[in-house]
Each structure stands twice: as C-alpha cells, then as structure tokens.
Amino acid sequence: MLKIMxxxxxxxxxxxxxxxxSAAPFDAVNNPARSLADRERDKTSKPNVVLNFIDLKPGMxxxxxxxxxxxxxxxxxxxxxSDGQVISHTNAVYESSTGEEAASRFKDNRxxxxxxxxxxxxxxxxxxxxxxxxxxxLVYHDIYFTADYWPKVDRDxxxxxxxxxxxxxxxxxxxxxxxLENTGMSAAQDLHxxxxxxxxxxxxxxxxxxDAASDVLRNSNDARTLSVFDEAIRRKTDRFxxxxxxx
Length: 247
Prior knowledge:
Elements: H1 2-17, H2 36-45, H3 47-54, E1 61-65, H4 71-80, E2 85-90, H5 92-106, E3 114-118, E4 131-137, H6 155-165, E5 166-177, H7 187-190, H8 196-204, E6 208-214, E7 239-246
Parallel strand pairs: 1-2, 1-4, 2-3, 4-5
Antiparallel strand pairs: 5-7, 6-7
C-alpha cells in the first residue's frame, strides 16, 4: 500500500512539474494554469465544445493565425500536449494592441510547446506541408478590411500560403462574426462581420473542401447590424464555426 501511495505521489508531482502540458486534449479548458480572465471568456467562447468539434489531437502541429493575446494559443498548447507544437502568430498591428497580453502569457517559456511568430499577412513565412491545422478565430473577415493602418491583403496569396503550409488532409478552422445574408464581404469594413455563405464559397474556391459546421456559437438575438465592438453585442455576436480540409 505504501509503495502504491508513493507511486501515486510521484505521478502527481510529474503532473505539476511538466509545465502542465500533459493534460488530455479536451481537459485543456480545465487546466489549472489558465487565468481567471480566460475562464471568464470561456462563458461566451465555449472552447471545450469548439476544441472537440475541430478534432484536435495530441502531437499535432497547429497555427493560431493572428492569435492576438493568445487565448486560443494557450488552449491549443494544452490540447496538443508536450509532443505537439503551436505557432502563435501575430503582426505589427495586432502586436500594438495585444502584444502586452501575449508577452505576459508566454513569459519565461511558460508554454514550452508554443513558438511566437510576428510576420505580415502577405508574407507569413510558413514552411510547406508542415501543419496539421490552422485556426482563424474572428479574423477571416480582416482579409477584406482596409484601413491606413492595415496592410492591403492579397487574398489569393493569403489562401495559397495557408494551403501550402498544411499537410495533405490538413484542417482549416474558421470562426467569425456572422453578417446579414447576401452581404458578401461588405460588412467586414464597418461591422467587422462577414456573410457566412460567402465565406463558405470563398474558402472552398481557394482549394479547401467544406467538412462540417457547428452551431455552438450561434446567437439568434444578434440582429447582425451592429459592429462587433459595440458594447451591446461585444463577445455575444452570432458566430459561425466552419471546418475545411485541404484538397
């Protein structure tokens, strides 16, 4: 009995000293190393359902594209485990607004299987056939957004980079704020939303096969006429969740 207790004790020590990267994939949300702020966001982002839907597995290499402060990057880190790898990507614009949060999250190699990359959208610098999955969380619409501070995006080049970086059968996950039907890309400019039917067709035409959709982030009370930054709807927008597979 004492020997068994000692072995259990050693196992518990191992769990607490391996940077808590050995959690089962979908226990990622309950990882004790996560912040209270992230747990609060879970209420509207519902990451446990999302992670199950996208079929993330231990050992995968995943790109969190335009990761912002790294909310999803940390979840992905726990889910892919110590044998997996996460690239948490940002660019100069995102870095100016969320860089401090990301620096705090990744300080002192806190998430040892995450590498942080800063590169611009038209030259992401991705290695060919290196990734199992790419996530675009609330940023797909930005390829159709224009502003003095936002680099003009070459849409074809953008998708070509993503497609070439994925392994055969690799997965592209797109989560975004839904716009009114038949508005195409037009709502991306002022509302930071995009027509989900347009999104599906657009991504399919870029060399991906539509695989599945989830309703986990739907909100029928969102009229889809307000900017996603309006406090009346912020973090409560109607969102579509799509999974595509590289052809």
